[in-house]
Design brief:
The complex is a heterodimer of chains A (530) and B (251). Chain A has 530 residues and is an alpha/beta fold. Helix content of chain A is 53%, strand content 7%. Chain A has 20 helices and eleven strands. In chain A, helix 16 runs parallel beside helix 17. Chain B has two domains: 72 residues, D-lysine 5,6-aminomutase beta subunit KamE, N-terminal domain (Defensin A-like, 2-Layer Sandwich), CATH 3.30.30; 157 residues, Rossmann fold (3-Layer(aba) Sandwich). Chain B has a five-stranded parallel sheet, sandwiched between helices. Chain B has a three-stranded antiparallel sheet with strand order 2-4-3, with helices on one face. Chain B starts with 8 loop residues before the first strand and ends in a 5-residue tail after the last helix. The radius of gyration of chain B is 24 Å and the shape is elongated. With 251 residues, chain B is an alpha/beta fold. In chain B, helix 2 runs parallel beside helix 7. The chains are: A alpha/beta (530), B alpha/beta (251). Chains A and B meet through helix 8 and helix 17 of A and strand 2 of B.
């Protein structure tokens, strides 16, 4: 079965598909220009993390936050932190950047914008230190590739994706190892619910979290080491997933690269629409984090499932397609390759709707055919899961069947106790039996399955694509220099209106001055021109 | 059926009246062998299931076994002794709500909604407030005489109180889904305390919380006026608000 043959099943009009991509590019390009001309607190902190600043003060506030705040107070952030920080390094006698950060936070360092030869000196040093971080990320990528060659890869697609979320990294580790032994190819550690709105990355190994475990560099390191151990034991590389979203997305992306995480949740608009994070903050942070992911060989997972949990999965099916097209444009512009695009979609149609399974199949096939080379991420039902766990188990079986029939790359395992309790050990075991049964019984069904030309499934897919194109046209017709921002501001996506000058984290957004300098962006963009 | 004493005794129903049949499943932290099945039967008996049958036992990893048990429970249930919170207000249509608000309040009834604390699950509050609604009923935004302000997810309590004052909210609806470490109870207590502190006594807006894991009887204990549990529809909420806010003596 080749991807090319799969592409014929829906008989999509190539001109319409081209039109959809053109419109997505037209909507995305002004946003990229905004991202190229702004910076954020978190991008600047990520630069420092890339250059090796680590640790936190006695209150748990990371030194990168302290250092960026000190620079901002002295000279602002419109030129970036790099020039003032490495100028201060050259002028003072600090052991390293972390020592500088410590002194700066006690007020004993004064920052300035260097000029002339001093500027050249600062720029060279910044590039050298940032380059070391990028080289470390490159080494981790090579290490991953070598491990996959040596211990072996997941035996099949879709990769089976399981979640652990105890709040305590030391509880997560045995759970994640057990899940891997039971068959998980990917382990996702859900973050503590509040983390996306924290404007700093917590430090160290953490044991307290709400509905999830904090994403910290140390937690990343501990979990990756535990999964390396179990990967060797099982003879297949078990991938680790976390979340590059929220106010610290660029920093978390950087830490993920440094600690060899394999996949990251990373959606272009999720933070805006669902977390009320400022749109510009999000797009700037997004672009940086995607550039890091591209370099680190990390697969991103986008969050289209969220659209369907807040809106009707039939009426709003086209918003998933629109979001996938935008995510694709932004991802490729940032340097990600097709194999790194885990574009999301979900099985969320009300099971009471007649033909709901055929509709699900049509939507999943549309995603598959629009993005033939992307490892799509297929998300299980949540909205229509009730306390009736038996019915939920059946629904998850149908979800798995759509996954098997449409060649999904990543399958998030549905739990019958969704919306009831955190899954029991037995729930996870039953859920994996469900997946295994369906994949073994019907995993090759796609070879025989060809929807009737002009039939229900084809017509539905064509309709959703047409609606997606119509929505993209409506976005393109919005007023102003960045129609997508206007569309987000007037509530085009769901009922949520998110104006560009509001939302969380807006006070951490800065327009770049003409002499803005960011050594990480400079190095990541070498040899890549989208 | 109901007897002369007023007692109404029932037993679980499998396929025959009075057979008492139930089905349970659980996991014991031991590997699967004869002894493990015996342990499962012992647990079932202690739960009042006697005779019990282990119909399925499956080892999961080296240290756990999953059991499905069928059997008859000896316990009797007296339905007449069950206490439930009966709805103390009439269920109104959207039109009736609008008329009641217009004639009795003579202005729009202002409803402020939010998920507080770290809770990002807006599905509950959205189901009640968004026009889209829930269970075939349109949400509160659809009611012409209600002014709905939905603050969305992760709203801080001080922000909620400030917005309630600014909007002159008549009612504040808070949704809590995340229950880890009883976060829903802590957040609700914090919220009700903040309103009591910020408003003159007896002048706080009507405080309503909802979520799948609340005990509907715990309103007083949590310092709120009303708790709504799983499956509550927008119409029930609208009817309650109308009843509580347009009939003076209840407040």
């Amino acid at each position: 079965m080749t991807r090319a043959r799969r592409g014929k099943k829906l008989d999509l009009d190539p001109a319409t598909v081209r039109r959809a991509r053109t419109l997505a590019r037209r909507a995305g390009r002004p946003i990229v220009r905004i991202a190229q001309t702004h910076t954020t607190m978190s991008v600047e902190r990520a630069v420092l993390r890339m250059a090796g600043v680590a640790g936190a003060d006695a209150d748990g506030i990371p030194w990168v936050n302290r250092l960026v705040d000190a620079v901002r107070a002295d000279v602002g952030l419109e030129r970036g932190v790099a020039m003032p920080v490495w100028d201060a390094m050259a002028r003072g006698s600090h052991d390293d950047l972390t020592a500088l950060a410590q002194r700066a936070s006690s007020g004993s360092v004064t920052f300035r914008i260097p000029e002339g030869r001093e500027a050249d000196r600062a720029r060279r040093a910044a590039r050298r230190d940032a380059g070391r971080g990028i080289a470390a990320i490159d080494r981790r990528r090579v290490e991953r590739e070598r491990l996959i060659r040596r211990v072996g890869d997941a035996p099949r697609q879709p990769w089976i994706y399981l979640i652990v979320a105890t709040g305590d990294i030391h509880e997560d580790i045995p759970q994640a190892q057990a899940a891997a032994r039971e068959g998980a190819d990917v382990i996702a550690v859900i973050r503590s619910t509040g983390q996306s709105l924290l404007d700093y990355v917590p430090e160290g190994a953490t044991r307290e979290g709400y509905a999830g475990t904090y994403a910290t560099q140390e937690n990343f390191r501990l979990m990756r080491a535990a999964l390396d151990e179990v990967s060797r034991e099982l003879g297949r590389y078990v991938r680790l997933t976390n979340y590059a979203s929220g106010l610290c997305m660029p920093e978390i992306a950087t830490l993920a690269g440094l600690e060899r995480l394999d996949m990251m949740l990373n959606d272009s608009m999720y933070g805006i629409l669902f977390r009320d994070i400022n749109p510009i903050r999000t797009f700037v942070d997004q672009r940086f984090s995607r550039q890091v992911h591209a370099r680190a060989g990390i697969i991103i997972n986008t969050g289209e499932d969220n659209y369907l949990t807040t809106a009707d999965a039939v009426d709003e099916a086209h918003t998933v397609t629109v979001s996938q097209l935008l995510n694709e444009y932004f991802a490729k512009e940032a340097g990600l390759a097709d194999w790194q695009l885990g574009l999301g979609h979900a099985f969320e149609i009300n099971p009471e709707v007649p033909d709901s399974f055929r509709l699900e199949l049509a939507h999943a096939m549309l995603a598959r055919e629009l993005f033939p080379a992307a490892p799509l991420k297929w998300m299980p039902p949540t909205k229509h899961m009730t306390g009736d766990v038996f019915r939920g188990y059946l629904l998850d079986g149908f979800f798995n069947l759509v996954g098997a029939m449409t060649g999904q790359g990543i399958l998030l395992v549905g739990m019958m106790t969704e919306a009831v309790v955190t899954p029991f050990l037995s729930d996870r075991d039953l859920a994996l039996q469900n997946v295994r049964y369906v994949l073994s019984a019907a995993g090759n069904l796609h070879e025989d399955f060809h929807p009737q030309p002009g039939g229900f499934i084809q017509s539905r897919a064509h309709l959703v694509l047409d609606e997606a194109v119509a929505l993209l046209e409506r976005i393109a017709a919005e007023p102003g220099p960045a129609p997508l921002l206007a569309a987000i501001g007037d509530g085009t996506f769901g009922l949520m209106k998110r104006p560009a000058d509001r939302g969380k984290g807006y006070d951490g957004v800065f327009r770049q001055a003409d002499d803005y300098y960011n050594p990480v962006t400079e190095l990541l963009e070498v040899g890549h021109h989208a | 059926m109901r007897e002369m004493t007023g007692k109404q005794i029932v037993r679980p129903y499998g396929d025959t009246t009075g057979d008492g049949m139930v089905q349970v499943s659980f996991t014991l932290p031991i590997g699967h062998d004869k002894r493990a099945e015996g342990a499962a039967l012992q647990l079932a008996r202690k739960m009042g299931i006697d005779p019990a049958m282990v119909v399925h036992a499956k080892q999961m990893g080296p240290h756990f076994t999953f059991f499905v048990v069928y059997g008859s429970v000896s316990h009797l249930v007296d339905v007449s002794a069950v206490q439930v919170l009966e709805r103390e207000y009439p269920l109104l249509s959207a039109k009736e709500v609008n008329v009641a608000v217009k004639t009795r309040l003579r202005r729009k009834l202002v409803v402020l909604g939010a998920c507080i604390g770290t809770d990002a699950h807006t599905v509950g509050i959205d189901a009640i407030l968004n026009i889209k609604g829930f269970a075939g009923e349109k949400g509160l935004e659809y009611y012409r005489e209600l002014k709905v302000v939905n603050l969305g997810a992760q709203v801080l309590v001080p922000e909620l109180v400030a917005r309630a004052r600014a909007e002159k909210a008549d009612a504040v609806l808070v949704s809590q889904v995340v229950t880890q470490r009883d976060a829903h109870l802590q957040n609700t207590r914090e919220m009700s305390a903040a309103f009591r502190e910020s408003y003159p006594a007896g002048r706080t807006p009507l405080l309503v919380v909802g979520g799948p894991r609340f005990d509907e009887h715990a309103a007083r204990e949590l310092g709120v006026d009303r708790i709504f549990g799983r499956g509550t529809t927008p119409r029930e909420v609208a009817s309650y608000l109308t009843h509580a806010l347009t009939t003076k003596e209840t407040r």
